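Need a sequence for this fold. Nothing fancy.
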């Protein structure tokens, strides 16, 4: 007959943490470094919608150039977002506030939705599924992290 033992430890008790665990980078900085190294299309914005970090694959997906060129830009000026009508009109401010990266900041909850983005003039729009989580720094909202999946 098999014998199974279960052992519980307390890795999250401050006294039980190793020195390496206690040196974790707090808040949004931890996410910006993870996004910068991510293989998936993703980005981090702060509460003023300024891009803090963007992955290389996200830049390629949306035609943003190099990540360093997008960092510091407002999300709305970096991405040309359009609606789902046949003529693809640019989103007005009230509709833009409903896109997942901004909705997660406004609501402080997870947000998901579809976006259409024109990578550059003359190119066909890219439709993506966006999943966003708000980011906290302590108890305070600091921004949002969004992952994008192209819809083909």
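Here you go.
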């Amino acid at each position: 007959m098999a014998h199974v033992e279960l052992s519980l430890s307390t890795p999250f008790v401050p006294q039980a943490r190793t020195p390496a665990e206690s040196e974790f980078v707090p808040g949004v900085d931890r996410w910006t470094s993870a996004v910068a190294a991510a293989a998936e299309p993703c980005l981090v914005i702060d509460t003023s919608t300024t891009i803090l970090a963007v992955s290389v694959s996200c830049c390629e997906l949306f035609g943003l150039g190099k990540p360093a060129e997008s960092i510091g830009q407002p999300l709305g000026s970096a991405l040309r977002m359009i609606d789902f009508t046949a003529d693809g009109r640019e989103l007005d401010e009230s509709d833009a506030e409903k896109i997942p990266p901004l909705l997660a900041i406004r609501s402080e909850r997870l947000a998901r939705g579809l976006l259409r983005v024109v990578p550059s003039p003359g190119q066909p729009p890219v439709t993506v599924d966006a999943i966003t989580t708000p980011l906290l720094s302590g108890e305070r909202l600091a921004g949002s992290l969004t992952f994008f999946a192209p819809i083909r």
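For context: The chain has a mean pLDDT of 87.
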